Amino acid sequence: MTTTTPDLVATCWTSAGNVGPLDTSEASPIPVLERVRAVGATGWMGMGLVYDDLLVVQDTIGFAELRRHAHAAGLRHLEVELATGWWRTEDQSWRDKWNLLLEAATELGAAFIKIGTEFGEPVTDLTMFVDPLRSLADEAAAAGTRVALEPLPFGLIASMPQGAELIRAVDHPAAGLLVDYWHVFRAGTSLGELADCLDPSIVFGIELCDARAEVVGTLFEDTRDRRTLVGQGDQDVAGFIRTMRDIGYTGPWGVEILSSEHRQRPLWDALRAAYSTALQAFE
Fold first, then answer.
1. Are 239 and 204 in contact (CB under 8 A)?
2. Distance CA 258, CA 143 (A)
3. Which residues contact 190 (CB under 8 A, 6 or more apart)?
4. Can you tell me the distance from the alpha carbon of 229 to that of 209, in angstroms, rounded to the nearest whole number?
5. What percent helix, strand, coil does the chain show, rounded to 5?
6. Are 35 and 75 in contact (CB under 8 A)?
7. Distance between CA 174 and CA 139 in Å, rounded?
8. How far apart are CA 238 and CA 18, in angstroms?
9. Which residue, among 4, 20, 116, 105, has the nearest Cα to 63 in the 3D structure?
10. Which residues form the Xylose isomerase-like TIM barrel domain (predicted)?
C-alpha cells in the first residue's frame, strides 16, 4: 500500500517561540527569516504568521522578500491571521488591520486570511454577520485570496455547525471555514456531528493539536497554555483526520501547538517535535 506524506503547515504559534495570543505584542522574538529556514529544514511544507509578525516584515524586508525566502526554503503554503471586528458596519477601526492582512495575503500568495469573532456569549441569530462576511469575501476574492472563519467555543460564533450555517448563508466561494480540532472538541461537537455539517467546498483549512480531557482554567487559558503535542493528550486526533478525509478534504494540514510548555522549547526542537508527533497521527 502506498502512502503519501501529508503537507504539514507550522501555523503561527508553532514556530513563534516565547510569545502568545493577547500578549502586548504578538510578534515573535525570533527573526522571521530564521523561522523560515528552520521551518523549511524540519520537513514542513508551510508556515503561518500573525498580524504583528507581518507588521515587522512590512517595516523591514517586505513581503516580496519574505515570499522569495519561503519558496527557497521549500514552503508552498503561507498563512496570515487574524482579522476580527469585520462585522461592525459603523465602527471601521478594524480596517487598518484587515488591509495589511489583505496586502500580505496577496503578496505572499496565501490561500486565505484567517478571521474570527470576539470573545462573548454565542449569538443566537447570525443575521448581523451575513452581509459583512459576504463583503469581506468580495474584497478577498478581488485580491486573489479567500477568508476562512475560525469558530471559537468562547466566541460569538462558537461551534463548527454554527460556523457552517453562517458560511452557507453567506454563499460565497471565497468564504469558508478553518477547522481547528481544539475548537471542535472543546465545543462538544462530536466527529459525527462534524461530518454532518461540513463538506469540502467550505473547508479551507485545518489545524491539528491535542489536549487533556479536562479544561484547566478558562477556555481561553486552556487553549493558550495547555494544548499538547499530537498524541500526548486525550483527544482522538487520528479519528478527526479520518473524518476530514472522509468528507473529502485534500488540502494541507496545519499543526497548531500552543502552550506554555511549547513556548519554552528552542525553535528547532519545537518544530521537530510538532512535526514528528503530528505525522504519527496519519500513520
1. no
2. 30
3. none
4. 6
5. 45, 15, 40
6. no
7. 9
8. 28
9. 105
10. 36-263
CA distances from 95 to 9, 140, 155 (A): 27, 13, 20
Cell numbers given for 23: 500578549
Residues 166, 207 contacting (CB under 8 angstroms): no
Separation CA 203–CA 206 (nearest Å): 8
Residue 283 pLDDT: 87
Q: How far apart are CA 45 and CA 275, in angstroms?
A: 11
Domain spans in the chain, listed from the N-terminal domain onward: 8-282
For 52, residues 6+ apart whose C-beta sits below 8 A from its C-beta are 25, 26, 27
Dist CA 51 CA 94 (whole Å):
12
DSSP 89: S
Dist. CA 104–CA 32, nearest whole Å: 14
Class of domain 8-282: alpha beta
Q: What is the pLDDT of residue 20?
A: 96
pLDDT string in tens for the chain (283-residue length): 335 889 999 999 999 999 999 999 999 999 999 999 999 999 999 999 999 999 999 999 999 999 999 999 999 999 999 999 999 988 999 999 999 999 999 999 999 999 999 999 999 999 999 999 999 999 999 999 999 999 999 999 999 999 999 999 999 999 999 999 999 999 999 999 999 999 999 999 999 999 999 999 999 999 999 999 999 999 999 999 999 999 999 999 999 999 999 999 999 999 999 999 999 999 8
First to last CA, the chain: 12
The torsion region of residue 196 among left (phi > 0), alpha (psi -120 to 50) and beta comes to alpha
